[in-house]
């Protein structure tokens, strides 16, 4: 008995489609990661079975339960669109009615004058000098660490 050749796994087909299009290795890793998460989310059902409703459900899950950033949700969407269009040859149609992730407001942490004074007084030596340069001159860390004596005007 001769064994029938089996079709490549869907993940291998996804990788091949990405490589044929000469996408970056990081993109391949990301798309495979989202493919795996998507399949796990749907309890290992084939993506053809879950279709557009399954994609919407997964994207809602990312936004509402996992609280991912908008860019992360968009990356997952791009990976799934690529899977369905380029690998499975399925057009999902309009899937824009999923819950979008919201950007969380970032509040800067600002020290009071007293806190800054205590911090600068507590740090001595080279570290203290670098910290005082960071604070007093508004330098970034890599800028302060790359300073040379000739760069400083005494």
What key phrases describe this protein's structure?
mainly alpha, 60% helix, 154 residues, DNA polymerase, domain 1, 2 domains, single chain
Largest sheet: none
Overall helicity? 55-70%
Q: Report the total helices.
A: 7
How many β-strand stretches? 0
CATH topology heading of the largest domain: DNA polymerase, domain 1
Order of helices and strands: HHHHHHH
- The gross shape turns out to be elongated
**Low-confidence sequence ranges:** none
Q: Based on helices, strands and strand pairing, what is the structural class?
A: mainly alpha
Fold and architecture overview:
The chain is built from seven helices and no strands. By secondary structure, the protein is mostly helical. The chain has two domains: 10-87, DNA polymerase, domain 1, CATH 1.10.150; 113-151, no CATH class. Helix 2 (25-41) packs across helix 4 (70-87) and helix 3 (47-64) runs antiparallel to helix 4. It starts with 9 loop residues before the first helix and ends in a 9-residue tail after the last helix.
